[in-house]
Amino acid sequence: MIAIIDYGVGNLFSLVSSFKMIGVPAAATSDPKVIKSADKLILPGVGAFSDAIDKLRSSGLDKLIKEQADAGKDIMGICLGMQLLFKKSFEYGEHEGLGLLSGNVVPMKGVVPENLKIPHIGWNALKFKKPSSLFRYIKENDCVYFVHSYYATDCSDSVIATAEYGVELTAAVENGNIKGCQFHPEKSGEVGLNILRAFCKGG
Amino acid sequence: MITKRIIPCLDVKNGRVVKGVNFKGLSDVSSPVELAEYYSKSGADELVFYDITASVEQRRIFTDILREVASRIFIPLTVGGGINTLDDFDRVLKCGADKVSVNSGAIRNPELIHRAALKYGNQCVVISADVKRVEGEFRVFAKGGREDTGMEAIGWIKHCVDLGAGEVVLNSIDTDGVKKGFDLEMLSAVCESVNVPVIASGGAGKIQDFIDLFSTVPGVDAGLAASIFHFGEVGIPDLKAALKANNITVRL
């Protein structure tokens, strides 16, 4: 069973539906018992970093996620959920993240060329940086759907895919059991479902 | 690099997809769920799902249909029609919409854009504008294109973006349903004045119209159409292949 961690940030309808579509039991939950008994975890999230990390902390889910991660359970962060895995974010100030991956989350503004729009919204091609079991059912240059204004940097040890947007933006990360996608696999058509299938299969 | 998006638009009335010429003479085309699934499989990059009568008849979108669409297709979904309050945003987002488009609701109460952007993020708020040339200027129309608001369109759209709208759908009433191409002049004017994604709507009749759109107005991010897709006059795989052959970046 996949536990989709529900901490009151964003809409989990599409994520729940996409696991249903690929035939993998999944539930949106904030119940520590369910999270502990799950085979794998998904950490979703949209919105502001500080708001999200505050909600994880005030509910105690931050400690539980770290415990589960340290115990070796597969966890995949999606969009803001991926950003939360890092040490720090510089979105409106400076905020500590979960620290499961080394690196920082910084604004795209001032980094991507001025003629490109921010947020980075739309379908962009994945450039593979390292082999990963997450890519077992997809191929390089397959497109996935992004919506974000901040991106992870100083994380060369965990980057497995990037997307070109004037600069190379971190698109997917992996360090052992800790995984993340900046894009939305649940909104990336068959390619996205194939990434979720690969995550569920593991390996 | 970000691809140019192709977006079929599903105008829905009483749970069925309809498409009129210049918003009049509606004809029933098909089931929203079936069409959405078909488009997703054939390579649509996104779907727009409008309750076209809501702003007139105060009819709420049938959320069960929306929920069914959103549980079966896994591409971005924009929902519009009758969005007047934050509760309306909440209602459609809970059913799986990713973005919510406001039109008449924002004309009545522009603050709605600001409040929705604060609550859900700019990326979630789409300003949809029905625009027509009147007395030598671009004029915003309300209530499904039936009522001249007297507002100049470019200034209105800029104002909406300043309030927090993260995307613009520009529907030219002048070219809508005519099938002789998008309104390149109107689109250029909007693209020059805002720095958020602009979706072109109204006027697509054939593949070449999309090639002209993206070649002539490179600032446009997406092309939206309804009847040419619903009636199979243009197939999305053929359209994308033709765009690629013309060096326009698309998702294949």
Features:
heterodimer, A: 203 residues, alpha/beta, Rossmann fold, eight-stranded mixed sheet, 14 strands, B: 252 residues, TIM Barrel, 11 helices, 12 strands, 28% strand, globular
Protein architecture, described:
The complex is a heterodimer of chains A (203) and B (252). By secondary structure, chain A is α/β, with parallel strands linked by helices. Chain A has one domain: Class I glutamine amidotransferase (GATase) domain (Rossmann fold), CATH 3.40.50. Chain A has six helices and 14 strands. In chain A, the strands form three sheets. Chain A has an eight-stranded mixed sheet with strand order 2-1-3-4-14-13-12-9, sandwiched between helices. A four-stranded mixed sheet of chain A has the order 6-5-7-11. Chain A has a two-stranded antiparallel sheet with strand order 8-10. Chain A is globular. Chain B has helices spanning 32-42, 54-57, 63-72, 86-94, 104-108, 111-120, 153-163, 184-193, 207-216, 227-230, 236-245, and strands spanning 5-13, 16-21, 24-30, 47-51, 77-80, 99-102, 125-134, 137-142, 147-152, 167-172, 198-201, 222-225. Chain B has a single domain (5-245), classed as Aldolase class I (TIM Barrel). Chain B is an alpha/beta fold and 252 residues long. In chain B, strand 11, helix 9 (207-216) and strand 12 form a beta-alpha-beta unit. The A-B interface holds A 11, 13-14, 17-18, 20-21, 46-47, 117, 119-125, 143, 145, 147, 164-165, 186-190, 192-193 and B 1-3, 5, 40, 45, 67, 70-72, 74-76, 93-96, 98, 120-123, 166-167, 195-197, 221, 251.
What name does the CATH topology of chain B carry? Answer: TIM Barrel
CATH C-level of chain B: Alpha Beta
Number of strands of chain B: 12
The Cα radius of gyration of chain B reads 16 Å
Distance between the termini of chain B: 14 Å
Q: State which percent range the strand residues of chain A make up.
A: 25-35%
Unreliable segments of chain B (pLDDT under 50, ≥5 consecutive)?
Answer: 21-26
Bulk shape of chain A: globular
| Number of helices, counting only DSSP H or I runs of 4 residues or more of chain A | 6
Percent of residues of chain B in beta strands?
25-35%
H/E element sequence of chain B: EEEHEHHEHEHHEEEHEHEHEHH
Query: Mind telling me which CATH architecture of chain A this is?
Result: 3-Layer(aba) Sandwich
- CATH level-3 fold name of chain A: Rossmann fold
Averaged pLDDT of chain A = 96
Mean pLDDT of chain B: 89
Q: How many beta-strand elements of chain A?
A: 14
> What spatial order of strands do you see in the largest sheet of chain A?
2-1-3-4-14-13-12-9
Mass-distribution shape of chain B: globular
Classify the secondary structure makeup of chain A into a structural class: alpha/beta
Alpha carbon gap, first and last residue of chain A: 16 Å
Helix count, DSSP H or I runs of 4 or more residues of chain B: 11
